[in-house]
Write a structure and sequence with these properties.
The complex is a heterodimer of chains A (265) and B (159). Chain A has 265 residues and is of the alpha+beta class. Helices cover 35% and strands 24% of the residues of chain A. In chain A, 50% of the residues are buried. Chain B folds into two domains: 77 residues, Ubiquitin-like (UB roll); 69 residues, [2Fe-2S]-binding domain (DNA polymerase, domain 1), CATH 1.10.150. Chain B contains five helices and five strands; from the N terminus they run ββαβββαααα. In chain B, strands 2-1-5-3-4 form a five-stranded mixed beta sheet, with helices on both faces. In chain B, a hairpin with a 2-residue loop joins strand 3 and strand 4. Classes of the chains: A alpha+beta (265), B alpha+beta (159). At the A-B interface, strand 1, helix 2 and helix 6 of A face strand 4 and helix 3 of B. The structure holds flavin-adenine dinucleotide and FE2/S2 (inorganic) cluster (2 copies). Flavin-adenine dinucleotide sits at the interface of chains A and B.
């Protein structure tokens, strides 16, 4: 790992100011992606601004608009939250599927979204539920957030402070795991929001995306059979040693079927 | 270069001078000389480096020492009683042949203790899932699962 300067920020404002000063500075959340990347010298920021001591960035709040989760809230705390389990059980379940126990004890919601790993789980929930990403500057709709491979709508130094997830009538997330890393080879989040069906896919493309084909079919009929009848095009899908684009496209339908089944309970 | 970090390690207050980029596992092994915490990979996947931070199992290879400022750290050296009596989870690994070479064992035990505290009546399936982040090249996991089931019971019984 290359050397860098370290600052423990005491407020979101201090953190944002410190990162804004220097284009090679980065926020440090749990380090579960960033420290890894730095160890492999895939990333070498000159300054790390640790968000770990900022109390306002952690916590879970439920109100009429849904569930708002602080950016620094750990995956394990979302998975174990009685409030989340009650309001949006599919979201708690998804958080409990990320990586392994140790990763879930450190990894954060904000870090996962800012990183936008093509195989990450949270992006599927954010997009599937139509969540709002709250930053220190503005509110970003999920549909405008994921831009490409490890690329988001965040501007330099923009800090995610929390995410607001609207509750759905019924929803579920199912993923086909990479057996070594636990990341999603393909994950599908299905949500019947009450005003339409949203289907978000992760693992299959450069970043999470919505499947228009599945949404159209499930809006007409929210059934396993309707999902099964959809053939998702493999154009633009990832192809690597784990799965070909064609196989991933096939998996999208299979995971969607299972997710609908789970959502129907 | 050269920053100060303070934390509690196995009940003792520790203050160290580290580089900003020093990993927590490097501090534990090379400065504190607590070499029971192992490093088995470069990719955060093997779990041999698992310790408890504020009572939660985390991988000490995947975080900076600075991220543990003020934290309560427990390593495998801290789980037995001062007189050497094994922790019930350690005893269960011994009794159930839950280790062969022993390289993965400190991480297994640290994760298992945290897991058992939160899930005292876990099923075998749940125990297997809890081991997602711990690799063992020797045992085939079977006796590790047996050990954790037995250790959980012993912990719940307050042994
Ligand atoms: C072994 C292993 C298995 C894993 N398996 C999975 C899996 O199955 N599914 C999955 O989804 N993920 C998985 N992960 C990744 C894990 O979920 C991480 O928590 C996540 O990628 C982000 O890590 P972090 O929160 O620690 O953020 P960091 O690593 O600290 O930061 C990641 C990036 O986000 C930026 N950042 C952090 N917080 C903010 C913020 N609030 N605002 C703006 N930018 C910010 C940082 O500058 C950095 O660029 C795995 C990781 C490991 C090590
Ligand atoms: S050394 Fe930490 S996970 Fe392998
Ligand atoms: S006992 Fe040898 S690696 Fe697990």
């Amino acid at each position: 790992m290359h050397a860098f300067k370290y600052l423990r920020a005491s407020s979101a404002n201090d953190a944002a100011a410190a990162v804004a000063k220097n284009s090679e500075a980065r926020y440090l959340a749990g380090g579960q992606s960033l420290v890894q990347a730095m160890k492999l010298r895939l990333s070498s920021p000159t300054d790390l601004i640790d968000l770990g001591a900022i109390k306002d960035l952690t916590g879970i709040k439920v109100d009429g608009s849904g569930v708002t989760i602080g950016a620094m809230t750990r995956h394990a705390d979302v998975a174990g939250s009685a409030d989340v389990k009650k309001a949006i059980p599919a979201l708690a379940a998804l958080a409990g599927m990320v990586g392994d126990r140790q990763v879930r004890n450190m990894g954060t919601l904000g870090g996962s979204l800012a990183n936008s790993d093509p195989a990450a789980d949270y992006p599927a929930a954010v997009l599937g539920l139509g969540a709002t990403i709250n930053t220190n500057k503005r509110k970003i709709a999920a549909d405008d957030f994921f831009k490409g491979l490890f690329e988001t709508a965040l501007q330099p130094a923009e800090l995610i402070t929390s995410v607001t997830f609207p509750a759905a009538k019924r929803a579920a997330y199912v993923k086909f795991k990479n057996q070594a890393s636990r990341f999603a080879i393909v994950g599908v989040f299905v949500a019947d929001t009450g005003s339409g069906v949203r289907v978000a896919v992760t693992g299959a493309g450069p970043c999470a995306f919505r499947s228009k084909e599945l949404e159209a079919a499930l809006s007409k009929s929210f059934t396993v059979e309707a999902a099964a009848a959809v053939k998702v095009p493999d154009k633009g899908m990832n192809s690597d040693l784990h799965a070909s684009a064609e196989y991933r496209a096939h998996l999208v339908t299979v995971m969607a079927k299972r997710a609908v089944q789970a959502a129907l309970g | 270069m050269g920053v100060k970090v303070s934390m509690t390690v196995n009940g003792k207050q520790v203050s160290s001078e580290v580089e900003e980029r020093t990993l927590l596992v490097t501090l534990i092994r090379e400065q504190l000389r607590l070499t029971g915490t192992h490093v088995g990979c470069d990719t955060a996947q093997c779990g041999a480096c698992t310790i408890a931070m504020n009572g939660k199992a985390v991988k000490s290879c995947s975080m900076l020492a600075m991220q543990a400022e003020g934290a309560d750290i427990m390593t495998i050296e801290g789980v037995a009683k001062p007189d050497g009596t094994l922790h019930p989870m350690q005893a269960a690994f011994k009794e159930n042949h839950g280790l062969q070479c022993g390289f993965c064992t400190p991480g297994m035990v640290m994760n298992a203790i945290d897991f058992a505290k939160r899930h005292p009546n876990a099923s075998e399936q749940e125990v297997r899932e809890a081991l997602d982040g711990n690799l063992c090249r020797c045992t085939g996991y079977h006796n590790i699962v047996k050990s954790i089931m037995a250790g959980s019971k012993a912990m719940a019984a307050g042994k």
